[in-house]
């Protein structure tokens, strides 16, 4: 009976899409395939079992200790502070671990003699509320890829991973874009730095974010209008940039995504004509492109996306440790994050490769992304330039929010292998109040008018 009902629901959904004039370009999982999410697979589609030698344990529901979220002082707790590294990977011994290293990490180990990766016991902490799992199960049987104004976009998905059993690369990368995150967050007074080739640390950004994920507003499916992530960022420093602001409204139809900036010199809000792809972002002082934010966040229609497969890889994970020092300087090295505060673990990742379509232009015509199987969050990427040389290494350090429960990306950045520079963003070691889950924001703060009110100086 359950199979019949599910099949009927899928038929009605397809008819609705046809009536709306939405051309379907990819199909959903069958009811039988979706049942795997309650057995051999986790609710998000990862392999529930551990690996052969036990270095990756079985998933047992994730980490949900309510008492190990925020401390009384407003700072994040590191629930695994007592863990010790199992071993460290350096340029001298990297050959022993080469099959579990990305090309970018191999290049970092070769380029910088003091760079190392401290590998800790693997903890599969990924967790989400039951309603997110329920929505993911529904998405598995009804969500489709359809042709939108800027290429393939999800249809009929809401409140969960859209394609927990992906068939292709574009489905996998949409899983990253629509990964589970709390519906409303405040990230107060974080810093962004440029690390220069001669080892200087230059703060280019002090800012505070309000973030909203309408896609994950519980019980509001009927009100979801395809804008899945909203952000307002207001700068308080450095002095030359104080008062600037930027808002972004990301849409499943990426031709409708919009970004606006408040320019203090003009006292006006301007809509950016091209807030995507390899366009440099203003908030990073031009150090990174829009599609390197959070490893990847941008239009997808310039590339062909290939789902290469899965592999075991050392990736940043459970990074609450990076929030414990009281100063940014302690966390920053001369050319990269201080290895003392970056926790690496062995996890299975989906490998997705993006190749520039014929006739399109981009500074990185080829990129390989590594998506954590438990969360669908992009952990690392390797980017090649037009000559075929490995060029840039985007990364993201996630933290666990056990009180939600959730695992979210926090510190992110890009290492430039050619110039020897780096951009590292969202350090909040000097903030009195670190990342917090809050009540739903008012939509008006994510509008040009709301940007003016918050940004004036």
Automatic annotation (TrEMBL):
Coiled coil: none annotated. The keyword Signal applies. InterPro entries: DUF1329. Residues 1-28 form the signal peptide. Pfam families: DUF1329. It comes from the Bacteria. Keywords: Signal. The keyword rRNA-binding does not apply. This is DUF1329 domain-containing protein. It comes from Marinobacterium zhoushanense.
